[in-house]
Amino acid sequence: MSQELPAPIPRLTVITLGVSDIRASIAFYDSLGFARRLKVTGEAVAFYDTGGPVLGLFPWDQLAADAKLPDQPRPTTFCGITLAWNCRTREEVDAVLAFALDKGARLLKPAHETDYGGYSGYFADPDGHPWEVVVAPGIEVGEDRRVHLAE
């Protein structure tokens, strides 16, 4: 009889995006105001403090190779994942969308009232990774920049 191992504590620590041009992506995320950390990595990889899980940027082909996945064909459509920038107010949603577009993002969907009582819009980063900018009931952004969920 084997002894059952204790379950590890689940955690999401880093979200890494594969990017086509690491320099351009670093410039984009710097311009959005995310704080870059571990700059000693130069342009090999970039890490950003987001107030929650770390955002990583890594060259697309190297990230695919590291995960033992094919680099080609690169998807040209939705890949089943979005990133979110939760806000405190509808006005903040509008301001974040305008700011991101000013920094080179592409508007995917203008801000609008949602069917669940929130307010949301989408932009894409230089590699097309979709970001939802949203204020939603039951999800609050604290002074610590972290998301706090209702029970």
Automatic annotation (TrEMBL):
Lyase found in the keyword field: yes
Residue span, VOC domain: 11-136
Family matches, as Pfam families: Glyoxalase
InterPro entries, alphabetized: Glyas_Bleomycin-R_OHBP_Dase, Glyas_Fos-R_dOase_dom, VOC_core
PROSITE patterns found in the cross-reference section: VOC
Any one GO molecular function term: lyase activity
Domain of life the protein comes from: Bacteria
Keywords, ordered alphabetically: Lyase
Keyword Zinc attributed: no
PANTHER family given in the database record: BLR2520 PROTEIN (PTHR36503:SF1)
Protein known as: Lactoylglutathione lyase
Organism whose genome encodes this protein: Bradyrhizobium betae
